[in-house]
User: Which sequence fits this backbone?
């Protein structure tokens, strides 16, 4: 929700002043657009920090999706009225060894600081939040909202030091932490690996208790079914799945079955609808090589960044990562709402982490979702829950459960 609701004309002037091209895609009806703009809209999983270190790339700009791989920037957040979300410290997994942990920890700390310095550069437009109340205050003041999150707890390392490092990240402002990514780690089994711990490891059980004590939200996206079950049983606070869908919509281990969705909802948690794994993943050798380059885009010279964007977008034309249509995405979102209930669904598209689909390929297009749901008769109150109310409630529950 914004205090001021800029008209299309004002926006056009703003884009012109910023040297921006006109927004791409079909224009959204003004009335619906205003509906969307009145909402506080948050995305639970933004991988955009992968772009923060790029030489010559400005998070404050509005990049043209026709030539640019990044899907989120302040210009397009304004255009699509995305008011903020959780910016992820993602760490790719190396060996589960002291050397591997040390390298990963250094990476995660550097990424955390990079998020801080990038946000500080744009402090007039986006503020850092560590509580639900702070997010609402920032929004009321007309500012965008940035939370910090961790995807993959691998960089926390092993033993008692892991818990100290987790507390250290909490002090740095992190409020949402994913236990695992696509491979098993020292804490838990991943949904896309063979069981090693049959759920949580003993250290993973400590991790759950420490997350509760620190008042942080447990992110169960990427966790195996057994890991989810054990976290549900052990955690004093509700679980969040920051970017997942139902297996009924697309049967893949990265998605979650409806019985578990109901259990997470019954525990007060929420599932944030994603744009990924709603169709078969097309990960040929070309795309895999591009993903590797993308993970290190912050180290590339501007010309090499442009070449990567060009190669990525050229491959999108002949072999898109996903074949999902916008209507399939809407059907999946509606299924989540039918199963979990409107109080237990949130948004987490996985932009800049492999998310996006035709018609929803960057944040500028988010008003289409509101437009489509309004056309289906969804009330403004329910839209408010979906776009941020449920996510902030889960955060508040973790804050209250904490004992700091
Ligand atoms: Zn992910």
Assistant:
């Amino acid at each position: 929700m914004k205090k001021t609701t800029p008209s299309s004309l004002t926006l056009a002037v703003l884009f012109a002043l910023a040297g921006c091209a006109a927004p791409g895609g079909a224009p959204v009806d003004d009335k619906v657009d205003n509906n969307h703009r009145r909402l506080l809209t948050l995305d639970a999983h933004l991988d955009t920090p992968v772009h923060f270190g790029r030489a010559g790339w400005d998070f404050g700009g509005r990049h043209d999706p026709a030539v640019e791989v990044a899907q989120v920037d302040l210009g397009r957040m304004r255009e699509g009225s995305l008011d903020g979300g959780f910016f992820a410290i993602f760490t790719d997994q190396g060996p589960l060894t002291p050397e591997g942990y040390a390298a990963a920890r250094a990476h995660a700390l550097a990424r955390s600081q990079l998020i801080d310095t990038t946000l500080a550069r744009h402090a007039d437009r986006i503020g850092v939040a560590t509580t639900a109340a702070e997010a609402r205050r920032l929004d009321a003041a007309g500012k965008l909202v940035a939370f910090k999150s961790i995807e993959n707890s691998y960089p926390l390392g092993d033993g008692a030091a892991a818990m100290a490092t987790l507390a250290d990240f909490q002090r740095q402002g992190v409020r949402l932490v994913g236990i695992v990514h696509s491979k098993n780690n020292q804490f838990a089994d991943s949904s896309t690996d063979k069981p090693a711990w049959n759920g949580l490891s003993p250290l993973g059980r400590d991790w759950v208790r420490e997350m509760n004590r620190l008042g942080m939200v447990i992110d169960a996206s990427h966790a195996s079914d057994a890991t989810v079950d054990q976290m549900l049983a052990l955690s004093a606070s509700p679980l969040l799945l920051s970017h997942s869908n139902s297996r009924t919509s697309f049967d893949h281990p990265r998605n979650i079955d409806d019985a578990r969705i109901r259990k997470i909802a019954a525990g007060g948690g929420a599932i944030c609808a994603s744009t990924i794994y709603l169709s078969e993943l097309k990960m040929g050798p070309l795309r895999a090589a591009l993903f590797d380059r993308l993970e290190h885009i912050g180290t590339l010279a501007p010309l090499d960044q442009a070449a990567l964007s060009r190669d990525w977008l050229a491959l999108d034309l002949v072999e898109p990562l996903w074949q999902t249509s916008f209507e399939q995405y809407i059907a999946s979102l509606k299924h989540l709402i039918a199963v979990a209930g409107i109080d237990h669904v949130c948004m987490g598209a996985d932009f800049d982490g492999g998310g996006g689909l035709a018609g929803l390929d960057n944040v500028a297009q988010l008003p289409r979702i509101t437009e489509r749901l309004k056309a289906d008769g969804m009330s403004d109150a329910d839209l408010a829950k979906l776009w941020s109310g449920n996510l902030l409630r889960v955060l508040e529950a973790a804050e209250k459960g904490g004992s700091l």
